Amino acid sequence: MRARMEPEKTFAEKIAADIENQTAAGNEQQQPTPAERRCVRASDLLRRKVTELPKLFAPVFPAVGLSILGGESDACKSMLLRNMAICCVTGRDFLGWQYQGTRKSCIFVSTEDDEDATSFLLGKHNATYKDYADDWDRLRFIFANENTSSTLDNELSAEPADLVVIDAYSDVFEGKEQNSAAQVREFINPYKALAKRHQCHIIFLHHTGKGKEDLIPSKNNLVGSQSLEAAVRLGIELRVDKNDPTLRHLCIVKGNYLGSEYKGSSFVLRMDDNFVFQSTGERVPFTELGNPDVISRAGRKSKDVTKISDEAYMKAFDKIFAGGRLTKNNLKAKLRNSFEGGTDVVERMIEYAEDRGWIENVSTNPNKFEYERK
Questions:
Q1: Highest mean pLDDT among 107-111, 230-234, 258-262
Q2: In what order do the strands lie in the sheet with 55-58?
Q3: Cα 60 to Cα 255: distance, rounded to the nearest angstrom
Q4: Helix 343-355 vs helix 310-320: angle between axes, to the nearest 10 degrees?
Q5: What are the phi and psi torsion angles at 263 (to 5°)?
Q6: Segment holding 253, helix H or strand E
Q7: Kind of pairing, strands 201-205 and 234-240?
Q8: Helix, strand, coil percentages in the chain from 3-state DSSP, rounded to 5
């Protein structure tokens, strides 16, 4: 008996079959290996059961990431950061915040003080600390500002550290314009990668704008592009007390992983004759740190948004954020509806609320803003 003949395929069916075979073969060849895939599953992250992020100085300074310390020129920012470095390598608490690092090692990039000046200042500090020279052996200095990121990569590979201090940001910035968001991102990204690769904390010393010390402490007082502020997880402004030159106000103006109790009021520090700081345990509201006349003029320029009562703000934000996080555009739209303000007014409202720690930009993308009620 003759076998039944299959009907001959049409030209269109043959083309479709060829395409299907080629697609299947291509998919088989292009299938990525497990090592090439970069996604991490939520189930695996949940199984880690992380209940608290590692800290360098708990609870304020995270063990890994970038931070920035800004302030006016005579605030003694470099002195404070040298104190921090010494506390790191000796395992001391810093301003009452507990050392929780693992290496007791620090690299300090100094572009403003040379070797002789640093030797003198370390001697002054040690008049208070009274340590042996060998106790500070794991505190290393780099007195250069060229190829800083690659130099640090080499040093951290050879001898890991908990902390890297860069004094000062402006001297190591490799772009031409600090107000350029693109140039700032291009500069800062290698340092973010360094902190992650070497599991360390990197803090930049920076400056605030001229006359900003008369305003309420704010992350917006820092010089340069907002991309810098957006890239760091912790932002601090250091203020000189208006009445007592031995006092400083450490103001946390951004803290992605800190509660509102750490923001809105300064931590009052006292500096001794050897430029060593200690916490007094006192707190001062940000609103008391600025010059009232200057703040009043700024308020009038911004259409008096600060005259809205804090209670009205809080109630509005509770209602606005009832559904969860909001993009900046969505937040601005809801504020316009609540307060009938224009673009300038709602921008000031957002800035005012951020300064007081009521809301926070939690986006990890420096180019985007996603706010959360705190």
A1: 107-111
A2: 61-62, 55-58, 98-99
A3: 8
A4: 100
A5: -115, 165
A6: strand 247-255
A7: unpaired
A8: 45, 20, 35
